[in-house]
Each structure stands twice: as structure tokens, then as C-alpha cells.
Amino acid sequence: MGFFLHSPFPSSEIYRTLPVREEILKALLNSYLIGFYTFDYARHFLSCCSRMLDLEYQSKKGYIGLEYCGRMVGIKIMPVGVHMGRLNLY
């Protein structure tokens, strides 16, 4: 199962004000792959996991992963958009 968040992930300073913050993080970490629109959104998510769940991420050769419940959860930056040169308007 994968999860992609197109909207911004809040910084840990804002995220920690949510009453169910840990439950949301744990639910997201049940995915095998979590995608974010920008590196900053992924960085905010990783910071929240580190500060609230005491999880550390690993980054090797462009791969970012978190170990959670005995398995690796992949973190990817996947900007989404429309390539205007490939869009046929007529």
C-alpha cells in the first residue's frame, strides 16, 4: 500500500499541537511507500517521526527509508505536474 500527500505536511512545531498526532503518524507508517510533493514536506514528516516516535531515517544513494515494525517504509519525493509539451489541446 502506498500513500501520496500532495498538500504540505506541517512542521513538527505545528504538528505536535494535534491531539492524535502519534496515531496519524503510525497509520501513515503502515504504508510501504509514502510520497511527498517536495523535499520540505518529506523533511517535516521525517522530523515529526523522529521527535514524536523516536524513529530515525536512513538515506543512502537517493533512497530514504524509516524502519517501522520490523520493515522499511520508503519515503519518496514525487513532484506531480502536467508536461505542457505532451498535452495535445486539439
Side-by-side strand order of the widest sheet: 1-2-5-4-3
SS class: alpha/beta
Number of helices: 3
Beta strand %: 25-35%
H/E topology pattern: EHHEHEEE
How would you describe what is shown here?
The protein has 90 residues and is an alpha/beta fold. It has three helices and five strands, in the order βααβαβββ. The protein has helices at residues 12-15, 21-28, 39-53; strands at residues 2-5, 33-36, 57-60, 63-68, 71-77. A five-stranded mixed beta sheet has the order 1-2-5-4-3, with helices on one face. Strand 4 (63-68) and strand 5 (71-77) form a beta hairpin. One of its GO terms (cellular component) is cytosol. It holds the Pfam family Glyco_transf_20. InterPro entries: Glyco_trans_20. GO terms for molecular function: trehalose-phosphatase activity.
Mind sketching the topology for me?
Layout: E1 2-5, H1 12-15, H2 21-28, E2 33-36, H3 39-53, E3 57-60, E4 63-68, E5 71-77
Parallel strand pairs: 1-2, 2-5
Antiparallel strand pairs: 3-4, 4-5
Q: What is the gist of this entry?
A:
One of its GO terms (molecular function) is trehalose-phosphatase activity. With 90 residues, the chain is an alpha/beta fold.
Task: List descriptors.
5-stranded mixed beta sheet; 3 helices; alpha/beta; trehalose-phosphatase activity; single chain; Glyco_trans_20; 90 residues; globular
